[in-house]
């Protein structure tokens, strides 16, 4: 391009911008104009290197979209700015959503973000898949309908300027337009845009049909004009006599709807009789509108016989889109049925611009308010399909999805999840492998805990690590059946692995105690530790709740087997009641007492009721003897609880092998390259240690670190500390 051309182009851009400000449907304040100017400047900068397929500078596209938004739809300055910026984040890496937020505030940023997300949906999907995704996404984004409206404007301009695109792309985009955007435009009351989208859609999906009908309309135009003139001449005399200020127009049916009629009724172009409607638009005060409409109705039916089955009164009960008008079909000249639409100025504007116009009339003074009301109205319309709602809503059954949320992968693919789903559900929905390796998650670029509840529209990025694996806490965060099943089976698997290791450890330790690991000794151990299965035994050895001392105790008790044998025999002879057996199980499982919020405190068992593990109990703060534990049904309980309620502590028995506690380890050393790496490796290599928090600090060559871990057993902390001590450079490791 030569310099002259660029100069010309710049002048054209400036002119287009000026035009935009001029044609805005709303009155723009100075502040509005400033906002739009800023958006324009950013858009010009962001797209400066870009050209459209047609060769023109890219910036003409956002300006055109903004014009549609400003004039044809009549939206506010915020929307105009967002329309100017709608492709900036997607096309220009220099600008992020955060930048937009900094520059234009949250509302504009949210709208632009919504628009960017729609665009970044996987573009290679086939039409129906993509339309399905669009549909879902539109439902999620309806918290600001402006996103959808600007997207429709974007699509309209793309359809208007699709000429230089590859034919297969044209067909794809046109099909999508017919499938999703036109019904959507209709649904929110943008009738003109809907009609234009449909006609353009037909132009690219069935070009022959489109051009055939277009030619026929042009050919018959003269005759049609004459026909309309005949009607309006007849009506004029009467309307003038009544002093109406009005306009009569012939409104040709759109190419798309003529085509639809031809297909539906199996008729030729000539046989479609209502190829146009007559529209009478009258000026009236708001309070006289309805009366005048019916007066005109009366005049029309004085001249032409009405079809009683074809009367539509959208004035007494407007459509859910806000559309108001009186439609009648009458027998016109030459025995042809003609539809006559009677609308006031105001109604006409609503029909063309939707609610924007509606609220311009209703609440002109509270302009900003009215937009919000409008948006929430639209949202209502989208969410609550009424009887008159178009097929779109019917077909898509919005309510069906109210229990679903829709979130995005980093690549922009859409995933549907149940309401309340967390990043864990999301990662398992991608792939089991991803789920299993989940280490953390980012939602909309920010790190969140795995328990974070996802919202529709969130973009979720799962961080994985090869050392990550499911733990019992995950079951609290996962809501989907898929995730829960996978986590449970993995936990079982993990228990098995630990148990296998535990079995080997046990074999070694028993050997030192001169005991052979076999079925007999295992059974003895199981009953000695009051466990249920050998798996429980191996597992406990694996996680070190059963340690050397305990095994030694077992070994010495074993020499007393004869006593045990006799005891057992007596017990069996007496016949143990089922109840007691069950109690035995409980006793063995719930072996540790904790108070209030699972605190470990020293206590004494009260002698009045002698509670045993598993009994429902409470703690009582005695003056001389610390905490005394009573059964809940202890004879003294009621009087203690009522007289000294403030001294009562809740208490419960827990399974100590499942108990987790937090330990804080502090260490110091000499700052050394790779030290941090070594430390983290030690921790992640240690099974069953769940790191909650980790912080490292180096100061003048001195390294200090703090690790908070969650473990099931004290021994594990000791082991971990031992390993940390062995790291080169570490000087001191201590527990806080
Ligand atoms: Mn665009």
Structural account:
With 736 residues, the protein is α+β, with helices and mostly antiparallel strands. The protein contains 31 helices and 20 strands. It has five domains: 3-214, Hypothetical protein af1432 (Orthogonal Bundle); 220-360, Beta Polymerase, domain 2 (2-Layer Sandwich); 490-574, no CATH class; 583-653, no CATH class; 661-735, Alpha-Beta Plaits. Strand 5 (326-331) and strand 6 (337-344) form a beta hairpin. Helix 1 (3-23) packs parallel to helix 3, helix 3 crosses helix 9 and helix 13 packs across helix 15 (289-303). It is elongated and about 120 Å long. Manganese (II) ion binds next to loops.
Helix percent band: 40-55%
Coarse morphology: elongated
Which ligands accompany this protein? manganese (II) ion
Mean pLDDT: 79
Q: How many independent structural domains?
A: 5
Q: N-to-C terminal Cα separation, in Å?
A: 72 Å
**Radius of gyration, taken over Cα atoms and rounded to an integer in Å:** 39 Å
User: Which band does the percent of strand residues land in?
Assistant: 15-25%
SSE-based structural type: alpha+beta
Q: How does CATH name the architecture of the largest domain? A: Orthogonal Bundle
Return residue spans where pLDDT drops below 50 for at least 5 consecutive residues: 363-371, 381-402, 576-588
For the record, the CATH class of the largest domain is: Mainly Alpha
What attributes does this structure have?
736 residues; alpha+beta; Hypothetical protein af1432; Beta Polymerase, domain 2; 5 domains; six-stranded mixed β-sheet; five-stranded mixed β-sheet; binds manganese (II) ion
């Amino acid at each position: 391009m030569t310099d002259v051309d660029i100069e010309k182009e710049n002048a054209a851009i400036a002119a287009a911008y000026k035009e935009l400000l001029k044609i805005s449907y709303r009155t723009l304040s100075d502040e509005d104009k400033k906002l739009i100017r800023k958006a324009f400047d950013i858009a010009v900068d962001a797209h400066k290197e870009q050209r459209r397929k047609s060769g023109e500078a890219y910036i003409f596209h956002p300006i055109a979209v903004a014009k549609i938004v400003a004039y044809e739809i009549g939206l506010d300055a915020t929307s105009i700015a967002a329309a100017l910026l709608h492709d900036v984040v997607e096309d220009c890496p220099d600008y992020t959503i955060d930048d937009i937020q900094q520059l234009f505030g949250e509302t504009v940023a949210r709208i632009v973000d919504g628009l960017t997300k729609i665009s970044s949906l996987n573009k290679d999907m086939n039409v129906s898949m993509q339309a399905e995704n669009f549909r879902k996404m539109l439902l999620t984004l309806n918290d600001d309908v402006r996103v959808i409206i600007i997207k429709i404007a974007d699509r309209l301009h793309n359809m208007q300027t699709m000429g230089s695109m590859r034919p297969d792309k044209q067909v794809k985009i046109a099909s999508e337009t017919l499938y999703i955007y036109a019904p959507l435009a209709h649904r929110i009351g943008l009738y003109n845009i809907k009609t234009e989208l449909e006609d353009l859609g037909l132009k690219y999906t069935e070009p022959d049909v489109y051009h055939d009908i277009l030619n026929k309309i042009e050919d018959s135009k003269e005759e049609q004009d004459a026909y309309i003139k005949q009607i309006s001449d007849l009506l004029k005399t009467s309307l003038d006599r009544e002093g109406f200020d009005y306009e009569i127009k012939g409104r040709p049916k759109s190419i798309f709807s003529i085509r639809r009629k031809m297909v539906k009724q199996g008729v030729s172009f000539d046989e479609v009789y209502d190829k146009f409607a007559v529209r009478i638009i009258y000026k009236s005060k708001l309070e006289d509108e309805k009366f005048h409409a019916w007066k005109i109705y009366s005049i029309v039916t004085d001249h032409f016989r009405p079809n009683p089955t074809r009367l539509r009164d959208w004035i007494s009960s407007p459509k859910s889109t806000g559309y108001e008008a009186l439609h009648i079909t009458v027998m016109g000249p030459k025995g042809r049925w003609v539809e006559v639409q009677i609308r006031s100025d105001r109604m006409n504007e609503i029909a063309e611009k939707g609610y924007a116009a509606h609220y311009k009339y209703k609440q002109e003074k509270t302009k900003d308010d009215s937009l919000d009301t409008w948006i929430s109205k639209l949202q209502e319309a989208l969410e609550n399909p009424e009887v008159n709602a178009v097929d779109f809503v019917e077909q898509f059954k919005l309510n069906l999805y109210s229990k679903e949320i829709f979130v995005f992968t980093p690549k922009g693919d859409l995933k549907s999840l149940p309401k309340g789903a967390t990043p864990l559900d999301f990662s398992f929905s991608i792939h089991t492998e991803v789920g299993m390796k989940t280490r953390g998650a980012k939602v909309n670029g920010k790190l969140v805990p795995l328990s974070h509840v996802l919202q529709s529209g969130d973009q979720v990025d799962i961080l994985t690590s090869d050392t990550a694996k499911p733990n019992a806490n995950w079951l609290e965060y996962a809501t989907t059946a898929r995730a829960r099943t996978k986590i449970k089976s993995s936990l079982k698997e993990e228990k098995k692995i630990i148990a296998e290791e535990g079995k080997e450890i046990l074999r070694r330790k028993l050997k030192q105690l001169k005991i052979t690991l076999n079925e007999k000794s295992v059974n003895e151990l199981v009953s000695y530790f009051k466990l249920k299965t050998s798996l429980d035994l191996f597992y406990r050895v694996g996680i070190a709740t059963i340690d050397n001392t305990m095994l030694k105790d077992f070994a010495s008790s074993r020499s007393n087997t004869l006593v045990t044998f006799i005891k057992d025999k007596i017990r069996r002879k007496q016949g143990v009641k089922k109840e007691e057996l069950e109690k035995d199980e409980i006793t063995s499982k719930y072996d540790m007492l904790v108070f209030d919020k699972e605190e470990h405190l020293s206590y004494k068992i009260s002698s009045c009721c002698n509670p045993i593990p598993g009994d429902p109990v409470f703690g009582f703060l005695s003056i001389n003897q610390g905490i005394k534990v009573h059964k809940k049904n202890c004879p003294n309980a009621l009087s203690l609880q009522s007289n000294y309620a403030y001294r009562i502590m809740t208490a419960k028995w827990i399974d100590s092998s499942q108990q987790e506690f937090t330990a804080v380890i502090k260490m110091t050393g000499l700052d050394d390259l790779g030290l941090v790496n070594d430390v983290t490796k030690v921790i992640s290599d240690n099974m069953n240690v769940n790191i909650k928090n980790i912080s490292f600090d180096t100061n003048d060559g001195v390294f200090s670190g703090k690790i908070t871990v969650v473990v099931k057993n004290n021994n594990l902390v000791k082991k971990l500390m031992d390993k940390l001590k062995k790291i080169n450079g570490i000087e001191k490791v201590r527990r806080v």
